[in-house]
Structure prediction request, 145 residues.
Amino acid sequence: MKIRKYLFQALFVLAGTGIVFCLYCGCGKEGKPLPPLEKADFLPAPFALRADIVHGEKTTLEWQYPDDPKTRARVREFHVFAAPVRPEDCRDCPVTFTKIATVSMPKMRFVMEIPDKIDYRVKIRAVGVHGSNCSGYSNTITLTR
Prediction:
């Protein structure tokens, strides 16, 4: 009789734990569902990224984007990504890019500070008006001080 009592209590605890787990644990990523992107929703990548040294530690990044008015109307902003590359890093090692700035459309210029003794790899990406679609990355350039 005692074994049945303990068995019943154990099953009750397991069932309760399972219910709590199902109620409070999600199935993954939370957020609004997004419709699948159609071919027309894909944005072209910015191109011709280049840098000009302005004064000492500052450099101006400039890039281009297709002149088509329909394409430009679908772009809200550009994200600027940079990755520091130190002299002790190996040449072909992968680098981790982080977003350092957001530049609103139609501006296609960003002034960046570069500290001494650190090189940076930089690339740009266009972001759509709803924020749900992004272009590919521009060409990657290396900024050296």
Notes: The CA atoms of residues 81 and 99 lie 4 Å apart. The two ends are 81 Å apart (CA to CA).
